[in-house]
Amino acid sequence: MLKCEHINPYLQPTVDIWITNRTNIPRNNMPKMTTGSPPTDDGGLLLTVEEKEYFEEKYPILKNYIRPFMGAREFLHDKEGKYTRYCFWFEDITPNLISNIKEISERLLKVKTLREKSNADRIRKMAVYPYLFCQNRQPKTTYLIIPEHSSQNRKYIPIGFIEPIVIASNACSIIPNISIYDFGILTSNVHMAWTKIVCGRLKSDIRYSPAIYNNFPFPDLTQKHKLRIEKTAQEILIARSLFPESSLADLYNELTMPKELRKAHQENDKAVTESDCVAELMKMYQKLVEEKK
Asked: Is residue 6 part of a domain?
């Protein structure tokens, strides 16, 4: 039992602070985080593996407009390169390519009908574009993906880099144009400790949101220190690649995590910090808030 003079709202023995909902304003000029693209489609734009194969065989032209679709579950449970969900991605398509395909028209009518009935004005406005996702936040370059929900039993939230060909759903947070160094910080025990203190919860599982990232006081490190973290972060990705038949859920199961991956994370944790960090992060955050006043 730890005795202390004061406990803050996050049950930490440090000063009282509240993490603000700075959804669109990351600190320290970090790359912007957002959520993925919501289809809002009543299933009209989404495809199973069987539906993908059917449409590609019957209408070969559609191969150019079917993309892997990745939500939190797919990110955690799909094996690398073996996708279980797909979507129609009709950005920049010319109408004549799909206007005469009855099965596509039926699907788009479902999308249009759903959106017209919405109480949200922004969704109703997109009813006239039923062939498009309701919002397009898809990066044009490689991006980092963080599942919105993750088991409390994992020491580390699985996060990783995804190619732009894969469409991220709004069940994930995404960050384009982020470095391997930043990945090392975000996958470290420092950021995990911060997350577990300030995150929301679904039952007892972790609910990640842009506010966690946007308020995280990234450490100001020397170039030498940054290069070390880049190296340890890369080792994490290398360790994962040794097990191509395992999903991230398999790799980050605390009972079955491979020793190569655990060692890589331990080395990355050491590179970031080995100190008891949460109280220090709170102090750093308070200082940042005071400087903004």
From this structure: no
223 Cβ contact list (under 8 Å, min separation 6): none
Q: What does DSSP assign to residue 33?
A: P
Domain range holding 256? 27-36+139-292
Q: In this structure, is residue 147 part of a structural domain?
A: yes
Please write down the HEC assignment for all residues of 267-291: HHHHHHCCCCCHHHHHHHHHHHHHH
Q: How confident is the model at residue 204 (pLDDT cuts 50, 70, 90)?
A: low
In sequence order, what are the residues at sequence separation of 6 or more whose Cβ sits closer than 8 angstroms to the Cβ of residue 81?
A: 244
Q: What whole-number distance in Å separates Cα of residue 105 and Cα of residue 101?
A: 6
Whole-model pTM above 0.70?
Answer: yes
Q: What is the b/e burial string over 138-165, where b = at least 16 CB atoms within 10 angstroms of the residue's CB?
A: bbeeebbbbbbbbbeebebbbbbebeee
Same domain, residue pair 143 and 119 = no
Q: How many domains does the chain have?
A: 2
Give the pLDDT confidence of 129-161 residue by residue, as tens digits: 999 999 999 999 999 999 998 888 899 999 999
Q: How far is CA 142 from the centre of its chain?
A: 13
On whether both 77 and 180 belong to a single domain, the answer is no
